[in-house]
Design goal:
The protein is an alpha/beta fold and 510 residues long. The chain contains 12 helices and 39 strands. The relative contact order is 0.07. Bound molecules: uridine-diphosphate-N-acetylglucosamine and magnesium ion.
Length: 510
């Protein structure tokens, strides 16, 4: 069996990225779920390198902090002054033990690079036992990039930066993608010989190719099939272009695995998201971070899901969710806001203008309208009346509300936590529930209604309301209207009439 090659990956990320005009180092700008640097590291991951070195400089602390999160095994190496790409690689190699093998160098700002492409470059390089191999691409507009200069036999002669190129060289549309494989020993030797005799007075990594070639060493060009993968990012306009290109790539891949995207142009899916087949994603939807969408789920239109898990067959319409879990067959929206640790069990419902935070909503339970549920546990098959508030915050501490299973709470309730409503309990509409409601009880917590008969005719005489009242009473004056039992008895009667559910407002909020 052939010996596996020892590989070292060096990512160049010390540059400022001046044209981004940002306090954030260029390589930390986000692009559909990863930073530019994160994309490069993930493209290099399958190379199974013995070590990965990231050259940091501008914003070094920020870049180091990011690396410790996304690539804790990578070694950051500081290049205090940016004296060129050759200098950067020299510093990187000084930080690692000398030894045989392949050194793969990748510019930190080529986020569309695919693992297959860098893998093919490295394999071709190792199989040919080349001293150095550069990834090249034929591009429509080579402006600003290094040109691949070949000799009469088509072999690589040198790489020339645009600013150092003559007119003939500038006409070349085959460019250096900034991704290379080198034989470690020969790279080290060549790096020691780099000059700064160029327009920028920098040590160019690209000069290694000319040096090796002059020394009679085999240097090679590996041409990328799709030049889009080699696109760099220098300003925010290019970043937006890369984002669109990556969106299309990601969307196409999901459609090919059996996910329906009704409007791919307005669907933005982070590379970190997972979607099962037969999910349908409607227009203007963003799926971000660690979001997972189950099979047959319907997402959108107008939905943003961040780090949210949606079960099979669930639906989420015109809603925003962060760190939430939506169970199988559950339904969310339109216009719901699920905040971290909002957990909906199977077939639960969170409806319109409902906000849920750090709460468990049991199987089949419904919170249909205009409600805030914070720090609550709701059992199974319960119904929360419209316009209710789970009053979880006393100004200093947060408290929990527990609602049992098969409970039916009335419209416009306040649950002043800590408080519990037992299994099968009801509460009356308009109640401020401050005391526990035992299982099966009806909790009523509101002032009784009092009707002052004839008030309008007496106190608002001459108004349209007073005239209407008079007509309703057959033209009699206020004094002629007798009080009926309804003003007191009907109110008392609510507990008795609750079988019809109207007293709790429950029917109105199913
Ligand atoms: C470089 C190549 C060019 C190629 C292009 C592809 C050289 C001399 N030229 O040009 O042939 O077509 O990339 O995008 O290499 N960096 C450091 N330390 C430094 C200088 C740069 O870490 O001292 C990093 C940058 O952060 C960046 C990468 O190296 O990630 C490339 O540097 P950049 O200045 O963008 O080089 P280009 O001029 O684009
Ligand atoms: Mg560049």
């Amino acid at each position: 069996m052939p010996q596996p090659h020892l590989r070292t990956v060096v990512v160049l990320a010390a540059g400022e990225g001046k044209r981004m005009k940002s306090t954030l180092p260029k390589v930390l700008h986000p692009l559909l779920g990863r930073t530019l640097l994160g994309h490069v590291l993930s493209a290099a991951a399958p190379l199974a390198a013995t070590r990965t070195v990231v050259v940091v400089g501008h914003g070094a602390d920020q870049v180091r902090g990011h690396l410790s999160e996304v690539a804790p095994d990578a070694t950051p190496v500081l290049q205090a002054e940016q004296l060129g790409t050759g200098h950067a690689v020299r510093i990187a190699l000084e930080a690692v033990p000398d030894g045989p093998g392949t050194v793969v160098v990748i510019n930190g700002d080529v986020p569309l690079l695919r693992p297959e492409t860098v893998g093919a470059l490295v394999t071709a390089h190792e199989e040919a036992a080349a001293a150095a191999t550069v990834l090249a691409a034929e591009v429509p507009d080579p402006t600003g990039l290094g040109r691949i200069v070949r000799d009469a036999d088509g072999r690589l002669e040198q790489i020339v930066e645009e600013r150092d190129a003559d007119a003939t060289q500038r006409a070349i549309r085959e460019i250096n993608a900034g991704i290379y494989a080198f034989d470690a020993a020969r790279l080290r030797a060549a790096l020691g010989k780099l000059s700064t005799d160029n327009d920028q007075g920098e040590e160019y990594l690209t000069d290694v190719f000319g040096l090796l070639r002059s020394a009679g060493e085999p240097v090679a060009v590996h041409v990328a099939v799709d030049h889009v993968e080699t696109l760099g990012c220098n300003d925010r306009v290019e970043l937006a272009t890369l984002r669109r290109l990556l969106r299309d790539r990601v969307n196409e891949a999901w459609m090919r695995t059996g996910v329906s995207l009704l409007d791919p142009a307005t669907t933005w899916i982070d590379v970190t998201v997972a979607i099962d087949r037969d999910a349908v994603v409607d227009q203007n939807t963003q799926l971000r971070g660690a979001t997972v969408v189950g099979s047959g789920a319907l997402i959108g239109p107008d939905v943003t899901l961040v780090d949210t898990i949606v079960g099979p067959g669930a639906s989420v319409v015109r809603s925003h969710a962060v760190g939430a879990e939506v169970g199988a067959g559950a339904s969310v929206g339109p216009y719901a806001y699920l905040r971290p640790a909002a957990q909906l069990a199977e077939k639960a419902k969170v409806g319109t203008f409902v906000e849920v935070k750090n709460s468990q909503i049991g199987a089949g339970s419904k919170v249909p309208h205009l409600t805030y549920v914070g720090d609550a546990t709701i059992g199974e098959q319960s119904n929360i009346g419209a316009a209710s508030v789970f009053v979880n915050y006393d100004g200093v501490n947060k408290h929990r509300t527990v609602i049992g299973s098969h409970a039916r709470t009335g419209a416009d309730n306040m649950f002043v936590a800590p408080v519990e409503v037992g299994d099968g309990a009801y509460t009356a509409a308009g109640s401020v529930i401050v005391d526990d409601v035992p299982a099966g009880a009806m909790g009523v917590a509101r002032a009784r209604q009092r009707n002052i008969e004839g008030w309008v005719v007496k106190r608002r005489a001459g108004t349209a309301a007073a005239e209407a009242a008079q007509r309703a009473h057959g033209g009699e004056g206020a004094s002629g209207v007798a009080a009926t039992a309804s003003d007191s008895e009907a109110m008392h009667g609510q507990a008795e009439t609750v079988g019809g559910a109207s007293a709790t407002g429950d029917t109105a909020t199913e």
